[in-house]
Amino acid sequence: MQESGQDVRLKDFDLRQAAFDCGYVELDEEYDILLRDVCIKAAKSRISSNDTDDTRIIQAVQALDDIDRNVNELSERLLEWYGTYFPELELTGEPLARFVSSFGSRANVPESHQMFVKASTSMGSELSFADEEMLKIFALNLCSLYDTRRHIESYIVTAMGSLAPNLSDIAGALLGARLISMAGSLQKLASFPSSTVQVIGAHRALFKHLRGNTPSPKHGIIFNNVIIKNAPWWQRGKLARAFAAKISLAARTDFYSGERDPTIKEALDKKLNAVRTANPSAPKRDTKPHGKAGGRGKSRNKKGGRR
Amino acid sequence: MPVEELSDGIFRISIDGREMLATRNLMPGISVYGERLIVEDDVEYRQWDPTRSKLGAMVLKNFEIPLHYDSAVLYLGAASGTTVSHVSDILRDGLVYAVEFSPRTMRDLLQLCDQRPNIIPILADANRPQSYAHIVEKVDVIFQDVAQPNQAEIAAVNSKYFLEPHGHLMLSIKSRSIDSVANPRRIFKEEVQKLESGFDVEFEVLQRKELDPFHEDHLGLVARMFVDEEDEK
């Protein structure tokens, strides 16, 4: 195992000969078998040491996405299914699941409940006992998925707090975790230029742009932060650039020093305010991002794709 | 005759009027990735799906496969071992060094290595052959399926380290991983040129063909390392 652990070797070093010379093996076959065993062991030990904090966070982020997908599908099914029995109930998503799992048939809604009037006058059909049990179990499962989701979310927040405190400060724990997940690791995120960070998650738009006839994307996944989401459209590109720059800085600080540095956040806020005060109102026409800003011509595109 | 040997260890089997590619199973009874096992005259074969394996596609594209029963092969980009398992079938008395960079896929590959005695797994970056130079000895064939932008360079560097004089290089070039938007034809041409004269090792390209319809935008290539006669003396 030591043999393969070391990286640097002289090109002409003959391990087989060395093994013979040392009397470690006597036959070629012995060496072959030993080599294979050692290689398998070395690979296995390197794989098990590969489980790091960021791989755990990445798994958690992806589990979150899986749950979201499933929850959406299942809650839509519940809405359709339960709707035949109680169409007046205007609940969706988690409240609906909680309602169904605790009451089942609308006959069980107590007088004190705000849905009582609707429940007692509903045009929905009657719910048989077997169907009621079925729906309750279905809804209960959905509720437990919502619980799991919250659990994973808080796990990510805690884990990010220790792995990447600065990134969590700047981007928020969940967005930060998502960036790490899309980059592949904290190290990779730290080594990206901030222009890449700015468009992570906008691959389709980016490649469309590189093929030539659309404006460049202004923001990828970082759009999900309120800084950009809540900004008026003419500030978004500028804010995204400033935001991405500080995310890079935060990721690098986290990866290389690991210490919390509050000045990044201060600098970010200062920069954001500067952008906002410098661009108080929408610019005159021409560069509106919606619609066909780019047109077809190359030179116009560059203008259309302003950041 | 339902079984025909196309090349050492590679068979074409006709069953119910359908022809399929197969290798002779080195570990009878075990199906590696869910492929079909076929017994013919007391010999067990494993079906080989050319859409899942560049090498399999190369066989069907009438490449002359330089693999023999006792060859030593360096396989770069072994992934989870789909193709490697067939190479291991072919090399009954030979040996394959399977280099893979991703720990996740290496996990699957290791399960295969545990079963088969002629595969040596190496978790390493094919860009840095010096990191496994102490393990790998001279090989007859290098097979490379790495889908990296600097494919040709990786092939050249590894050939310089490990390939026997006049040994064969088998290459699958994926144009999308070199430039995702450029025209594949142009990229293939450039890569072939690089191989022929771009590095301090030179190759003589024996055969090249695109691997469609089995793999889109892939070029298969077999080359022989070119050795200067004077150098040999």
Give the helix/strand layout.
The complex is a heterodimer of chains A (307) and B (233).
Chain A: H1 2-5, H2 15-21, H3 28-48, H4 53-83, H5 93-103, H6 116-121, H7 129-163, H8 165-171, H9 173-183, H10 186-191, H11 194-199, H12 203-211, H13 226-229, H14 233-256, H15 262-278, H16 298-304
Helix pairs in contact in A: 4-5, 4-7, 4-9, 5-7, 7-8, 7-9, 8-9, 8-14, 14-15
Chain B: E1 3-7, E2 10-15, E3 18-24, E4 37-40, E5 43-47, H1 54-60, E6 72-76, H2 82-90, E7 95-100, H3 103-115, E8 119-123, E9 139-144, H4 151-162, E10 163-174, H5 175-178, H6 184-197, E11 202-210, E12 218-226, H7 229-232
Parallel strand pairs in B: 6-7, 6-9, 7-8, 9-10
Antiparallel strand pairs in B: 1-2, 2-3, 3-5, 4-5, 10-12, 11-12
Helix pairs in contact in B: 4-6
Q: Output the helix-strand order of chain B.
A: EEEEEHEHEHEEHEHHEEH
Q: What structural category characterises the helix and strand content of chain A? A: mainly alpha
What number of structural domains do the residues of chain A give? Answer: 3
Strand portion of chain A:
under 5%
Strands of chain B, total number: 12
State the CATH superfamily name of the largest domain in chain A. Nop domain
Helical fraction of chain B = 25-40%
Low-confidence stretches of chain A: 1-9, 291-307
CATH topology of the largest domain in chain A: Serum Albumin, Chain A, Domain 1
CATH-derived architecture of the largest domain in chain A: Orthogonal Bundle
Estimate the global geometry of chain A from the Cα principal axes. Answer: flat
Q: Nearest-angstrom radius of gyration of chain B?
A: 17 Å
Strands of the widest sheet of chain B, in order across it, are 8-7-6-9-10-12-11
What keywords describe this structure?
heterodimer; A: 307 residues; mainly alpha; Helix Hairpins; Serum Albumin, Chain A, Domain 1; 16 helices; 67% helix; disordered C terminus; B: 233 residues; alpha/beta; seven-stranded mixed sheet; five-stranded antiparallel sheet; 27% helix
